[in-house]
Amino acid sequence: MTLKTKIIIVIIMAFTSWTTVSAQYETDVPPDMMNMEYAEKADSMGKAILVNKGSYATAIELFKRSSTIYKHFNGETDESYLTAMALLAKCYMRNDQIQDAISVTCILCGIYERNGLDREQYAVIKDNLSVYYAIADEGEKALEASKIALSEYEKTGKMDFDYASILIHAAEVEARLENFPEAIRYQLRALDIIHQLKGVGSETYINELKYLQQYYEGAGDAAKMQKTQETIEALEKPGGGVRQAEELQSTEACTYHRGDAYWCAEYYLTHKLSASNAWEAGQYAMAWCISTDELSLEIDDRHIKCIGDCPTELTAYFCACLMIGQANEVSKLTREMERMAMRLVVRHYSFNEDIIIKKSPEVDKLLEYYKNDTLDEKLLELIPDVADNEATPENTGE
């Protein structure tokens, strides 16, 4: 047998093995159900089970059907097929069929690798594989998959929650293998991203600090473990995540602290003015709005007619605009968004009216509409939508 013949045989055997494994996770679909409409319905039902933590065995069958149909009509590179397979793996994991979860995810990785598909999604799938290997107590395989996921995701240049999650999982794998210095390094990188996205006062940031503390303990670093514990205790106090507005001296600083600004704005709007650091939270959010280039706010007669000269509710308006602007990823709010922000102002005023020192006749009037459930109509009158002939940057092309 020649070397060329041996190579061909190995390739054929590998392909046969892969197709056999792949077929294992397909299913016979009745002819009357072999259509895209049924696939989408099965998908929807399976997702509902995942969300509501229902029968994962049922969800497995649903995702096997939807993925089989998607692949039949659109091939293995179809986005719906890839998503259904990823959800199938998740269902297997939740149903304690971890080896099936691993097998399905390996099939997915092979599809991404063969076809050169989206690097970002490939990294996320590879990260899923790392998690499944870790659950199966296959540490070295988990670490290998984790490093590939990190390498691929770093090439995207994104600093988002997916990247933070991949780093967190890498830290967990390293900790399982008792490589605590590496676990600490990955966890610190993840915490920096979470700080930028959610703020140090966020539950996510504080929870991940607790894992960092565990890794310091594993590394035998008692001093850093104690310091981290003190930081956690400080942040868990009411208003503990409020920072000093003086740090927002540049647009770059505002970009880094956008998560802190969001957290402070939310804290101000959802707590009594008498709460610890509530006023400081509002001032931080206002300082961010003034210094950032991510949000452009205009206070004109329309807004003054709603707020008057009440400083607490002007602060509330800035906080509301900050939250709505970041949530919708816009630098300038639409009139509808401004009305949404003003509704939050009135709500804030309503549960602080007994302690506000400088009351606002304008907000008092809006509060009456709020209590009568007619506030939306009044706000539309005070902050009307842009007329067709009204000159704005949006409709003049400037």
The number of distinct helices, counting runs of at least 4 residues, comes to 20
Number of strands: 0
Order of helices and strands: HHHHHHHHHHHHHHHHHHHH
How far apart the termini lie comes to: 74 Å
Approximate shape: globular
* pLDDT < 50 runs, ≥5 residues: 7-19, 391-398
- Helical/strand content category: mainly alpha
Q: Describe the main β-sheet briefly.
A: none
What is the helix content?
Answer: over 70%
Give average pLDDT, whole number: 91
State which percent range the strand residues make up. Answer: under 5%
**Radius of gyration based on Cα positions:** 27 Å
Give a brief rundown of this model.
The chain is mainly α and 398 residues long. 73% of the residues lie in helices and 0% in strands.
Give the helix/strand layout.
Elements: H1 3-24, H2 36-52, H3 56-74, H4 79-94, H5 98-115, H6 119-135, H7 139-154, H8 161-176, H9 180-198, H10 203-219, H11 222-236, H12 251-256, H13 258-270, H14 278-291, H15 301-307, H16 311-328, H17 335-350, H18 361-371, H19 375-382, H20 393-396
If you had to describe this structure to a student in words, what would you say it looks like?
The chain is mainly alpha-helical and 398 residues long. Helices cover 73% and strands 0% of the residues. The chain has 20 helices and no strands. Helix 6 runs parallel beside helix 8. The longest helix is centred in the first third of the chain and has 22 residues. It starts with a helix and ends with a helix. The C terminus is likely disordered.
